[in-house]
Design goal:
The protein is an all-alpha fold. It contains four helices and no strands. The protein is globular, with a radius of gyration of 16 Å.
Length: about 80
């Protein structure tokens, strides 16, 4: 239940269900920084238009950067919690 509580708002505020161009301006701004948008965009581009390296690289680098940042944050928090 907790996972759905966290993932459903991310899914609905991304471009996973409908394109960002069809969203209101405020929701489009949220979708632009949503990590789910960057994960879905390369998949959508591949299915609809074929291989496009620009879209693939953008999505991969954003998700990879987020994963590295969250890994470093988790490492820092773990060390801080176990040092006490």
């Amino acid at each position: 239940a907790l996972v759905n509580f966290l993932t459903m708002p991310l899914m609905f505020s991304s471009n996973a269900l409908f394109p960002r161009e069809a969203m209101p301006a405020w929701l489009s701004a949220i979708a632009k920084v949503n990590p789910v948008t960057h994960a879905v965009a390369p998949i959508r581009e591949l299915v609809l238009h074929g291989w496009n390296w620009n879209v693939m690289y953008t999505g991969i680098f954003v998700i990879l950067g987020l994963a590295i940042a969250m890994g470093l944050l988790a490492q820092w928090m773990f060390r801080r919690a176990t040092a006490e």
